[in-house]
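Researcher: I'm comparing several assemblies side by side, and this is the next one on my list. It has 720 residues spread over two chains. Same procedure as the others: predict the full complex and return the structure.
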Amino acid sequence: MKSKIGIPVLSEKGTGEKVLNDIFAGLEEEGVPFFHIEGAECDVWELGRHAATLSPLDVGIGVGKDGGSAICHIKLARGSPYLFEPASGRTTGQNAARLVKGMPFKKGKGV
Amino acid sequence: MSQVIAGVDIGNSSTEVALARVDEGKVEFLAQHLTKTTGIKGTVDNVSGIRFALKSAAEKAGISFSDIKKIRVNDAVPVIGDLAMDVISETLITESSMIGHNPDTPGGTGLGIGMTLHLDDLRSNAENGQAYIVVIPAKADYEWAAHMINEAYDRGVKIAGAIAQKDDGVLIYNRLHCKIPIVDEVAYIEKVPLGKQSAVEVALPGHVIRTLSNPYGLATVFGLTPDETRQIAPVARALVGNRSAVVIRTPQGEVVERRIEAGRLILHGRKSRIEVAINDGAEEIMRSIERAGGLINVQGEMGTNVGGMLNGLRQYLSESTGQPFADISIGDLLATDVLIPVSVSGAMAGELSMESGVALASMVKTERMPVERVAQALEKELGIPVEVGGVEAEMAIRGALTTPGTEKPLVILDMGGGSTDAAAVSEGGETISVHLAGAGDMVTMLIDAELALHSRELAEKVKKNPLGKVMSLFHMQLEDGTMLFSESPFPPDVYGRVVIREEKELVPLPVKLSMEKVRAVRRSAKRRVFVTNAIRALAYIVPTKNIRHLSFVVMVGGSALDFEIPQMVTEELGKYGIVAGFANVRGTEGPRNAVATGLVLSVAREVVG
């Protein structure tokens, strides 16, 4: 089901507001549209992969309630997020946007 | 009776050996090896490198080290091809009055003019009727900053633009009621003077600013007199090509463009003694060298940068060879103009300005240093008889002549690491040769300086390999516009970046550099050194001094292996009607191993006697 244009952010149930807002801010700063879906409780890699399958831009972000995030690309082999950050923040959103735009990544934690 | 002979060529940057079995004048080459030269060419320090190269070659040939019956080394004159660079212009912007950098995502577009005001003072100090540029420090969250600006705007305060420390220009812009240009990622925001007239300009994506990069645009914005306009011109120049910029007018601040006294060179030539100032630029220096008619020695003016540099080289060579200081001379210089990115004094976002400078490669040598000492040390260490062969140029020619399709008369161009040499042999076997300063090492220095890499190693990689730009997970664009596809995804550290395509890995370059820029600098550095020196060297060895009288040139040496230098030289020489090609020593070695091969052949001839 690919409806809205943008990067899906699929978050685990119970993910903190602040983590999500930081990721959204990063996406917005880079000027790439996004939408948020709250998912079930599961592994962050699984969330990321699922987000990528929902994405019209081929890139999706999975966020876990521990604050970790996985940026996944539909074209990559299953089971491997392209970027994984144990503590997400604004760079997570920025780097997902840059993966869509084909730009170099920002140095954040875990990149 | 057959015996194994080794030819050893000690060069500025590499030492090469060739091993051959010589039998009744018949020569059968067994192996060759190349290694980095240890120490300065022509000094005893070379021994350990030679030993290593010989061992490796013997291993390749499948013989034992003790089978080598004779070693012949080239008559290596101790030479340092050293390099130095001097900045000769400097833009001083005191009371820092400009910010010109390219954040990836500035906010809004257009030009805003107003007085700088801290975000915290918006409530208390903003007067109606005055336009403001808001200064937003990192501690202010984007939501809060937008809220404060909106509150002031709704009260009737005129907001013309903003400067933010963090990367949130777009975020703030999206939340504003007024549409203003915002420059973000200004690292040292605390340095921004408050209460001063300033202008913020942001261009549309893909465009560059037009008002602040134009001296008359600045004059219009700030109402400057012609005198003041002249003074602020360097600021405008430093902002050319940016997508966003801020200029703040600090009336007591000064913008000065200084010419640094880089000193003078005193050229002692065969014809005359000529003085030339480094500030006159590379072209004038090279013309003066020509006028001096072949350099005997060069001195730098005492108490200046160039004087210190040349004396430092003499000192260094004198210490490492044990020769008296007075016996060290400078036999050639190559000067090139460089544009060096230099940090602007008082920059607020790590800006650079392009300053002009001159790079010098010099050939420092000592005539009286017999290579015999190296030969003796080698003999003592290895227990194999060592002799010194003939003149290097003759050996190189002899080696080059093993290239299929060559015969005397022949002209060779030897492009190495430290020097560019040329030699010619007539039909009668007379040779003439010349050694010039400036070769591979100088190219590396120019690349390093002009791209501000601050790493010789990285510059060396840029020099030796073509570039690419990673466009997506699976494909990259090459320099010539063709696409290269990859089976596996490119790793995140090279994604979206310009990379050096080494054989086994991709080395990412700093984000700010574009592929076009890196390529342009790399190619121009090679041209300025090798094309210039090829013409100079050939002109020297043509009896008529007119290189149009040459018909063939054979290129040898390490830099003849480069992926583009031979083509550049070939193309340039083609303009003079000269056919140039690179050697294929012994039909197998390419442009390498010419001197070592020549040494072995010279021994073989004597064996036949």
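Model: For your comparison table: Chain A has one domain: 7-101.
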